[in-house]
Amino acid sequence: MRQILPSLQWLIFILSGSIVVPVTLAASFGLEGEAAMAFISRTFLVLAVSGLLQTFFGHRLPINEGPAGLWWGFFSLYAGLGLALFGSAEETLRVLEFALLVSGVITIILSLTGLIDKLTMLFTPFVVGIYMILLVAQLSGAFVRGLLGIDRTGEVSLPIVGLSFVTISLSFLMTRSRRWNTVSILLSIAVGWALFALCGYGELPQLPDTLFIVPELFALGMPRMEWSVVPTTIFVTLLLITNMLATIKVVQGVMSRLGAAEEAQEQSPRKAGFFMGISQLLGGMLSAVGSVPISGAAGFIAANKVTSRVPFIIASLAIIVLSFFAPAIAWIAALPPAVGYAAVFPIFSGMMMLGLREWFAAASAEQIIARVGMPLFAGIGVMAIPAGSFSSLPPLFSSLLSNGLILGTIIALIMEAVRLYREKASKLTGGAGMR
User: Fold this and answer.
1) Which residues pair with 325 in a beta bridge?
2) If we measure between CA atoms, which residue out of 239, 253, 292 comes closest to residue 408?
3) Helix, strand or coil, per DSSP, at residue 61
4) Do residues 243 and 68 lie in contact, with contact meaning Cβ atoms separated by under 8 Å?
5) Rg of the chain on CA atoms, in Å
6) How many angstroms separate the CA atoms of 302 and 352, rounded?
7) Bridge partners of 65?
């Protein structure tokens, strides 16, 4: 019985953080009615299965999988370009199936050959701290737009602002309460959704005619091989691996600080990379969105003090069951975005502290702080540039330069690689002088 409430917390956290992407992409590609519901259903199935595979066989940590922001950007880019390049939205989605399959194969090869281990060495406190702070900065835009009602009405809505403020306040109060922190997300969403509905901002879902949704392999047609997308796919894959490694490091740190050092013991990055490749293959075969371990899991674990894998496993199994029921998917899709953002606001805002803690807990804290300016300045600066400004660039450069999180993290990785190389060269030179 004691696992029920933490499991519900995980369930709500996963659903509220994952619903926006498949709903948005379905609309971008003109999927409506049952086709859109099936796309959302398949995406949730991929996310839940991927999370379970990682928890049992990969990194073995309670980290939920979510639709990768990089794939979101990749899909959105081709939603606009696809008609001119491939003739229709359906053909474009078949090309994206191919891209996901290519990504899965590349990730598995990098894992089996051990090349992924070399990348792991670069994720020092300096890089992880940069990643976490840039992640919060990037998410803040979507959060604020949702909480102000801009996503719903196109402009700031004072009633939605007021309702969001009430929901956030409730979530903060319960997160800080020992008695209620284990159900803070669940109660915040329940109360927030009720308030939004009473004020006319919560619509009842349109229930589908069918009861069950049966996932199909290559539901949108067999993959269409277009080699022009391979260079961008390779780049996106490397960035996804970077994202995964950073997330694992952050969650391990949080669990260790909460006294779960044994559960957080470091696993081989090869295993996590291998099953990440399997996840990309699943996304391609089920015509869904590719997944990635979500860094927000660190904030969730820190806020709720739940380090056991059992509630996460139960929640993931529940999502698999729900993904087969069309009415359940309809209800999930009807959640007002502002309610979801407000309920998890304390968790994601707390991730900023996790990034700062990485720096201040390090032995070389002063040296780290002296180097954070460049990656933070570049990453946050790019976030302020409208995405359309990069549309004239080739997809490879557009994917890099339009994503402040990735750009800043790559700069930090390069800086760290240079520092480690200099340290190694200095030791070798010193050793040679001694001899």
Assistant:
1) 212
2) 239
3) coil
4) yes
5) 21
6) 12
7) 293
